[in-house]
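Table S7 (text form). Paired inputs.
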Amino acid sequence: MGKLRAAQYACSLLGHALQKHGASPELQKQIRQLEGHLSLGRKLLRLGNSADALESAKRAVHLSDVVLRFCITVSHLNRALYFACDNVLWAGKSGLAPRVDQEKWAQRSFRYYLFSLIMNLSRDAYEIRLLMEQESSACSRRLKGSGGGVPGGIETGGAGSPGTPGGSLPQVALKLQLQVLLLARVLRGHPPLLLDVVRNACDLFIPLDKLGLWRCGPGIVGFCGLVSSILSILTLICPWLRLKP
């Protein structure tokens, strides 16, 4: 499935490149047809995915963390609805249900896909916040134990204290710099979370473009879809890179 998806978005990216560089219309048509066949093949292979997504939602209901329970459950429910719409689209494109309004069902499908991705990114943001708080507390305990100051020898007091005129902006810049460094440290120490953030962020461009909320163009959509597909294949090859639960 991941290979088909990667091939489909590679065709999308290739088609955009060929059009940009003035390739022959016949070649462009063949690439578009290949992309369409790959899309239809993926829809055929996803016929049972709605049931799998519902089962995943049922398992997520039992998570102890309320925020994770909500984000993961709602994400799986939206994925189930997305796959259901996708099945209707497949029936229409394959000729089993020729009267299906494909544009309407495609819009529904991408809306559910967008909601699912928003929930995934919300879950990622929540996990990042928890890990940053844990890392910050651990750093504070280490600094108190060693009698040190701010990491890297940066002093936040003195002339730049909040009570000093003109000292507010440097303080904000310093805090922002420390937060960025802390975020980088957390993501570097948790590769599954980093991959999940990148993959969901890349996937987000697809429904945004298809729904007309943010027109990215076929080049960006193809590139982001290809990157996301490669990361998905990577998590299949290396299961420890898959974010759990």
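Next pair, protein 2 of 2.
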Amino acid sequence: MEGEHGKKMKILCLHGFRTSGSFIKKQISKWDPSIFSQFHMDFTKYTNLEECISYLTEYIIANGPFDGFLGFSQGATLSALLIGYQAQGKLLKEHPPIKFLVSISGSKFRDPSICDVAYKEPIKAKSVHFIGEKDWLKIPSEELASAFHKPLIIRHPQGHTVPRLDEVATGQLQNWVAEIISQPKVGVSICEDENKVEVDSTNHDKGVNGVEINKGNAETVEVA
């Protein structure tokens, strides 16, 4: 399904520290290509953390509108910051609300002056967070996920990397993307999920046939 006027929905993809747009493009190529086949992926290169927020804001306005962001590490951190800032009316005022975020090993900014604005309230954009069991940013990634309203969390056994996805995680991501595609294009109100869903892909030894659901404050799906 495509957006209005037959155009694909657009995702701005932001790379990690000391890498490039072409590098993150290669990183996510390990995922099932059907997941983002109905999106136009814009792999942007940026430098200088102090200046990149202004640069990215200008880039988004000039090349958008963008429906969502995808980022790895520093790129995910910046993406979440931009969405939070937009929600608080600090920037991107002339751009339609960003609808979703794909965060891989992201984290919050630590500066209180930033946190008090960007994460002041739960961010209502839909979000999926990939969190590695061996990632040195595991806890910061969990903290970033908690800044969003009802996020989808997909856990994997790897470290600070774009993980390979098993059948269950791929299916969860495909379902999440399908919900995105079914929504109106940018500029229209966002529909909210009923539940926070957490997918645990840390145990690959027993395959993907057994799925255990534990009821609590969140619906948790574990791959057995």
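Confidence is low (pLDDT under 50) at residues 1-5, 187-197, 203-224.
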